[in-house]
Design goal:
This protein is of the alpha+beta class. It folds into two domains: 18-158, Spore Coat Polysaccharide Biosynthesis Protein SpsA, Chain A (Alpha-Beta Complex); 168-281, no CATH class. Helix content is 49%, strand content 9%. The protein has helices at 18-29, 49-59, 79-84, 97-103, 116-121, 135-145, 172-190, 197-217, 223-236, 248-259, 261-281; strands at 34-35, 42-44, 65-68, 92-96, 112-115, 147-151, 156-158. The chain has a five-stranded mixed β-sheet, sandwiched between helices. Helix 4 (97-103) crosses helix 6 (135-145) and helix 7 (172-190) runs parallel beside helix 9 (223-236).
Amino acid sequence: MQNEYTNLIVIKHEINKRQGGGRNTGLRVAQGEYILFLDGDDCFVFDDVLKNFQDLMAIREDINVVHAFGYTSVPAKYCDILRGGFGRSLKIKYYDAEQFVEQIKFSAVWGNCYRRSFIMKNKLFFREHVVFEDTDWSLKAVYLAKTIGCLDYPYYGYRENDVSTTRRDGDIKVMMNNAQGAFAVYEYFSQLRDLSSTMRSLVMCRIKDCVVGYFFRIGRYKMADGRLFLEYLKNSGLLDVEYPKFRKIEKLKIWLIKYVPTILCGVLRFFTLSKRRVLSLLPKEF
């Protein structure tokens, strides 16, 4: 690839630092002002994506992050169809950090464009050797950017393969890294003294949704792995937080995770295996 693209720089790590290590190395050696992150199972749906982001960020110097709404989960062959429809003008909306966190329910590091000077000024680097390395990074960037530009069109194509994180659903290490990401968000935002009450509430609601979401996912893992994960949750302190907008059913789920983890693991594991068994007996065309 270096023979075809003269501006391509390949850097190899002696040990696997996962995405976080790769992103950090790229940030340190990059010389351009605009940064986009692209994982090995992804693609940009437009060839001129960087130029479009540059043009949009040049409109306002106070915009340090541009977010593209959503992403396309499509095979690579369909990306050409999307390129062919790029004749229209893009619309960009502007949000402050609170508006963004409230209205954009899902945001990761990919699909966004960042000013490198903004990243380096705020010393924004990723956690290494883990997956979900960008859980806390993305929210930190939004909070520090103050104003975020949002496009109304997906730039990002996801091409799932055998080594994609979404294919490792039964790996307890992935689940553990996910929880570590939630804790990293809590750790960072809970120590900010100038954080507005609105922003604090929005961030804590995101953490709460993440923790409560683990409830039914525990059944996907073996009993020993499930108990290990719940023990980590208990020790992290995430189960003891007084979250805002705490519904009774959410409180009940967290209480069960905290106080009867072994029974919970057994019940949910039985339910999951029973469901898989029933589905395996159904006709494929069902």
